[in-house]
Design a protein that fits this description.
two-stranded parallel sheet; alpha/beta; single chain; Rossmann fold; 4 helices; six-stranded mixed beta sheet; about 160 residues
């Protein structure tokens, strides 16, 4: 028997993103920049950008997960790395789909510290074993999460992206 999973549909994602934005607004935090962690954080950042009326969105490309529950030893930031000059003195909201181990969020948050006025994290899901406690969380779960953007296999596989071809 397979373990139960958390199922996030596109419709439920719309609800989650709106409620997550409401948490940020209710707290009085006014981000100047939303820094998404690609790839799952792109969806969250876009939705938060619209809901919080923030047009200044940036992307941090981080590689950590290589498959289901398969990771690199540590997360690495891939080029193009955000320019800290663009973040200087700003209130930054780091957006991602899930705080699982917390390693990716920690990498990006630590990258911002010392360059920005304030940095906070917003995620759709937070796992109990994460090392980063996010300021804004829609739901907490210990289950594996099926996100609508990653449950189906790619339409095409790029040869340079296949690990065991």
């Amino acid at each position: 028997m397979t373990e139960p999973r958390e199922e996030l549909t596109w419709e439920l994602f719309g609800t989650a993103a709106r409620e997550l934005a409401e948490l940020v607004a209710k707290d009085g935090y006014e981000p100047d920049i939303i820094l998404s962690i690609a790839r799952g954080g792109l969806f969250v950042a876009g939705a938060l950008g619209y809901a919080l009326d923030v047009k200044n969105l940036h992307v941090a490309n981080v590689e950590f997960y290589t498959g289901v529950d398969e990771r690199l030893p540590v997360p690495i930031m891939l080029p193009p790395v955000p320019n800290v000059v663009d973040l200087s003195g700003a209130n930054v909201l780091v957006a991602d789909d899930v705080a699982d181990t917390g390693a990716t969020l920690k990498l990006v948050r630590d990258f911002c510290v010392g360059h920005v006025a304030d940095v906070r994290c917003a995620v759709v899901y937070e796992k109990p074993h994460t090392t980063v406690q996010c300021e804004y969380v829609w739901r907490r779960t210990d289950r594996w999460i099926n996100f609508p953007w990653s449950t189906q296999p790619p339409v095409v596989r790029r040869p340079d992206q296949v690990l065991d071809a």
